[in-house]
């Protein structure tokens, strides 16, 4: 757990970077710090590992007051990831990841095993990447190595300062998706600085919004923050399109799914069933197999089922569902139970091929009703 009690950072010229900040991060929680440039979010992060010394106040990590700790020893027990990675150019990938274990005196076998484990965790094959140097990697790959290095000694706390800000949008989405999975598995206590409210909404359990002068304006879960900003400055920062951003934090499972008026069993005479549908372009039916799994769909005149479009699950967000919906010709997306057969679409999202039990369909109107309560 991280706890800051009335922490202030004032510079010699009288500038206040952080003003009387009290903030608590529970064990296993990810709290994102957001706000305009110069609002003190990075300073707050650096005070936790004492790269910046607070002028006043107390900072606690798991009950220990770090303002009276040995700063070098403190930093070796905290994972730290920055925007431009900061990898040592003269060390290989394996050497970079092994830095802290080496400083802590781990034996070589334990260190090698940990390096291989972490490279696998961040999606880099050790046999391919361990002996490469940072300049031989893409920006996204370097950032993955930075995350692996921060996790090397299994620290309870991670400090992440704009960790994905220097990579292209596609790589950034993939890094966010990968880190979500890592955090879901490891449950680290994370302070995460970002200027991007959308990134904060995607990743954080709670979001802390700062205003200039290092004042904490609001800290809340993403859905609460977007639905009810505490004041005008918070509303301005999260943006007029915060209703759209709620798509990211609202699950498909919250929507009332539509049910087609006709459901056809795959063993039925599909052509006969199709001929009996209502005429015009509005008539269509879902085709299911004997175990209730989606096989496809039919329109009037079809002699065989059409392939089912990509599906989503109740665990996916409305944002993911709408993204799938807008990429296909039909005005609905099937919703199926979670399945092991999930594939990455290359943009940080997984899609289901429809092998789970069919639950219903989601239309644009259903998404609107889920967000507005209409």
What does this structure look like?
By secondary structure, the protein is α/β, with parallel strands linked by helices. It folds into 2 domains: 2-249, Rossmann fold (3-Layer(aba) Sandwich); 253-372, CBS-domain. It has 15 helices and 18 strands. It has helices at 41-48, 71-76, 93-97, 99-103, 108-121, 126-129, 139-151, 169-186, 197-203, 222-227, 232-238, 242-249, 270-275, 318-325, 364-372; strands at 2-10, 16-25, 30-34, 56-61, 64-65, 78-82, 157-161, 189-193, 206-211, 215-220, 263-265, 285-288, 294-298, 306-307, 332-336, 342-344, 350-352, 358-363. Strands 6-7-8-3-9-10 form a 6-stranded mixed sheet, with helices on both faces. Strands 2-1-4-5 form a 4-stranded antiparallel sheet, with helices on one face. Strands 11-12-13-14 form a 4-stranded mixed sheet. It is globular. The two termini are 40 Å apart.
User: What's the rounded overall pLDDT mean?
Assistant: 87
How many individual domains? 2
Class from helix and strand fractions: alpha/beta
Care to count the β-strands? 18
Instruction: Give the percentage of residues in beta strands.
Output: 15-25%
Overall radius of gyration: 25 Å
CATH superfamily membership of the largest domain, which one? P-loop containing nucleotide triphosphate hydrolases
> What would CATH call the class of the largest domain?
Alpha Beta
Q: Please give the alpha-carbon distance between the first and last residues.
A: 40 Å
Strand order of the largest sheet: 6-7-8-3-9-10
Q: Give start-end ranges of low-pLDDT stretches.
A: none
Corresponding CATH architecture of the largest domain: 3-Layer(aba) Sandwich
Largest sheet: 6 strands, mixed
Helix share, percent: 25-40%
Number of helices: 15
> Which descriptor suits the 3D outline?
globular
